[in-house]
């Protein structure tokens, strides 16, 4: 029997994979893809909670799904801006490697 | 909701998610990301969220990944050459990720609701496009308009960033 806990654990695993990608990889585009993985892990737990909270009429709690809709919209805008920044960075420095861009490093 | 399908799609999603991080070729990573999002979309549909599942395929597999592939090919990124690996950073990063997962696992383990199965829906046919749309245009009308302004700002921002004389 699949419970809410299974979905939460799978969502946590997906978030961990994205988190590990941000910490371990040095290619800025891969880091960006890992960020997308983390956003989608949050979406999965929101939808699981939405399905779990069934009201008296037998409907899932649609507030969670509306939040997911907003997250997807913001994530799409974020990808567009982020990739434009990466292109601008590549024009200035000819690199997508984070260790080559360390001007702001303390 | 069949247990076999849940494990199948969870395995597809996590396997290709790991492939995104492990692959050294950025194009292979982007294509793994598509399959990862397909598995995620199937999981959304197993939770009776058909609208979100379709939106996930349309927006991510349709738009975001195309944008990623476009940028990767525009910048002509090759398989990155092996650099000297910073062992402290790799070990530290793995430990932090592992500790994070163990923390999530213990919190979910203590949650009593996590052990209950999902309650049955009232009718087999859930009209979720109708219900999400109704909520979006009544309760969440102001956030919806703010999101519209945000997308407009992002569009203008991208045009400004792509100007050639940017310093």
Give a concise summary.
By secondary structure, chain A is an all-alpha fold. Chain A has 3 helices and no strands.
Structure characterization notes:
The complex is a heterodimer of chains A (106) and B (167). Chain A has 106 residues and is mostly helical. Chain A has a single domain (4-99), classed as Helix Hairpins (Orthogonal Bundle), CATH 1.10.287.3510. Chain A is 74% helix and 0% strand. Chain A has three helices and no strands. Chain B is built from six helices and no strands. Chain B has helices spanning 3-22, 26-46, 50-75, 87-110, 128-137, 141-161. The longest helix of chain B is centred in the middle third of the chain and has 26 residues, at 50-75. The relative contact order of chain B is 0.07. Chains A and B meet through helix 1, helix 2 and helix 3 of A and helix 1, helix 2, helix 3, helix 4 and helix 5 of B.
Pick out its properties.
heterodimer; A: 106 residues; mainly alpha; Helix Hairpins; 3 helices; B: 167 residues; Four Helix Bundle (Hemerythrin (Met), subunit A); 2 domains; 6 helices
Instruction: Tell me which protein chains meet in the greatest interface and how many residues each side has.
Output: A-B, 74 and 86 residues
- Report the radius of gyration of chain A as a whole number of Å: 18 Å
Please give the number of β-strands of chain B: 0
General shape of chain B: globular
CATH superfamily of the largest domain in chain B: NADH-ubiquinone/plastoquinone oxidoreductase chain 6, subunit NuoJ
């Amino acid at each position: 029997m699949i419970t809410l806990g299974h979905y939460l654990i799978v969502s946590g695993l997906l978030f961990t994979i994205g988190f590990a990608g941000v910490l371990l990889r040095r290619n800025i585009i891969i880091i960006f893809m890992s960020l997308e993985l983390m956003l989608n892990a949050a979406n999965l737990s929101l939808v699981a909670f939405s399905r779990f909270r069934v009201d008296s009429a037998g409907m899932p709690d649609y507030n969670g799904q509306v939040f997911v809709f907003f997250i997807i919209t913001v994530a799409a805008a974020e990808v567009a801006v982020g990739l434009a920044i990466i292109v601008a960075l590549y024009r200035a420095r000819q690199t997508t490697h984070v260790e080559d861009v360390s001007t702001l490093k303390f | 909701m069949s247990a076999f399908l849940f494990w199948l799609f969870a395995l597809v999603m996590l396997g290709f998610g790991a492939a995104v991080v492990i692959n050294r070729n950025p194009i292979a990573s982007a294509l793994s990301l598509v399959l990862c999002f397909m598995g995620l979309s199937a999981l959304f549909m197993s939770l009776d969220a058909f609208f979100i599942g379709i939106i996930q395929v349309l927006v991510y597999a349709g738009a975001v990944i195309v944008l990623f592939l476009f940028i990767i090919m525009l910048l002509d990124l090759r398989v990155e050459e092996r650099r000297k690996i910073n062992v402290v950073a790799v070990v530290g990063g793995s430990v932090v990720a592992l500790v994070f997962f163990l923390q999530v696992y213990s919190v979910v383990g203590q949650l009593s609701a996590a052990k209950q199965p999902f309650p049955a829906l009232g009718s087999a046919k859930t009209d979720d496009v109708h219900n999400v749309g109704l909520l979006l245009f009544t309760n969440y009308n102001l956030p919806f308009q703010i999101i519209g302004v945000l997308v407009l700002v992002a569009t203008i921002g991208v045009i400004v960033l792509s100007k050639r004389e940017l310093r």
